[in-house]
Give the backbone structure.
Amino acid sequence: MPTNKENKGLLPSGLHDLLPPNAALEDRTIRALIDTFRSFGYDHVKPPLIEFENTLTASEKNGGGTLSGQMFRLMDPTSERMMGVRADITLQVARIAETRLKQKARPLRLSYAGEVLRVKGSQLRPERMFAQAGVELIGSNDISSDVEMVVLASNALAAAGISEPTIDLNSPALVTNILADIKIDPNIVKQLRSALDHKDSTEVHKVVRKHETTLGKKADVLNGLLEAIGPAEDVILKLRQLELPDLAVVELDRLELVVNGVLDGSINLSLTIDPVEYRGFEYHTGVSFTIFAAGVRGELGRGGRYITSSDEPATGFSLYLDSIMRALPDALNPQKLYLPFEIAAEVSKALRSDGWITVTGLTPITNIAAEARRLECSHYWVEGKILSSIDQTDISPKEA
Amino acid sequence: MNEEKKLVLALPKGRILKEVMPILDSAGIVVEKDFDNIDSRALRFTTSDPNLDIIRVRPFDVATFVAFGAADFGICGNDVSMEFDYPELYSPLDLGVGKCRLVVAAPEALIVADNPSQWSHVRVATKYPNLTQNHFSQRGVQAECIKLNGAIELAPMLGLCRRIVDLVSTGETLKSNGLVEIETITDVSSRLVVNRASLKTCARTLGSWIEKFRLVVKVDSDAA
């Protein structure tokens, strides 16, 4: 049996070749996302693929630490310093805003797109390299900026061909504020948050029962939170019925304003709320969100509010192209026009400006139709006419 | 539009299924007749609700089908969901059936002679290598797991290893194989598990199913 090493086609796990027509589809999708970002006033930035490790992991506040274990590292022979390959672009954009674009007027709107590399894929999303596209809105703490994020994300997805995403709003600070004034072991809090995150009612009840005396009335609140998951309007009503501490009410007010703002925005999406979602939001303040699409496992993207390492309020989101591609229908092969070797340069130029994708023969061929079919061209040109290589009927470029 | 999607409920084959069926009845789910036919080769079944189908798979596979979104929700023991620890699996409800314990067991003679505080390494036969490794590593012991798919109790007797981690309900099987329970890793019962993305994209329909199951379980526990 040949060993795997002998097969040239084998790639390391989580890495793959994107082939036609899907490679072109991914390009078009990224283009559509960036164009939408630009139309909302977001300027494009392009940080490098690799930079010094410490700038990619530096700040605890903005989640630099959370992806540190996911980063490929290599030594820079020139500076003799450790470099990291980015596992996420968000931090780089925040760095640009804090350094080179420090003097720019706030709020600062930036967009980005590019590949990231991760040490490990997850079981559900095995890709270790994928493209990420997103925006950061830096220097505003207004509710309207939270609303703008959700509206922009749904508009961008619609432009990419995903018409009805589900956006799940989360408020990581809500639970933090509910638990804030309780004297309770931080390890128990951690256990509780993880159980809430998994909606593990048994575990939540167990912890709550064990600490009933310390928790007091908050025991009911925590149990109530578990049942307050679902369509946004319903959840807001349910949360209003709970006896929340003042600081948590502030978060809830914020959440409700965002819900109302998004629903007023007349965009096509279903809006849900999950107040106890926590994964990946450890560094988020205020309103966060996760994007899903029907029938697609895992998330299409996520975003939310955070504080930059120079203490500016900021919000933003990232979309993951691997998940988005899973949500899109398979790409179709584009229609191509085969041009014989003898064709005049100005004719072929005119056909391209009419919108045709042309494939020009490199040698003279007698059976042009057969050659067009062999090269997967839907049409061919002969003596001033465009014919279908499949059913031989005339077709003008306008109809094609 | 999303809400009209047909939902798939994954049920575990075998012992637990008998205990689960009354809950389905009370929740108003009537499965097509072929479901009760043991000889039937069908794996997917329709129900009285045109938007709900049922699949019947091995208990261990319920968690996998649901985690990957092939089924939207399912019923499996927390032993299974803990073993896989899928981040995309929610377990919003304890159904209170299929109760048993996951325990460490060993031959009686071993227990007398042994001093657990000196262990650095144990060899364990189990269906649950991840749970076993986690359990032992928490106390600073490295567990070398031998993965078996059944008849775990035979392993110590035939010298494959000295300890096992397995499910116990009455303890009869352990006893008849000369094994004694050393400690409980976790109590086990059947849970309703839900796919994370499905719960978000089909919030209303899936939410109302969870609510129905919640009511059934509440009525049962109030009656008990």
In short: Confidence is low (pLDDT under 50) at residues 394-400 of chain A. Residues 246-264 of chain A form the longest helix (19 residues). Chain A has three domains: 12-160, 166-292, 336-388. The interface with chain B takes residues 122-124, 164, 166, 168, 198-202, 226, 229-231, 270, 272, 274, 279, 290, 292-299 of chain A (CB under 8 Å).
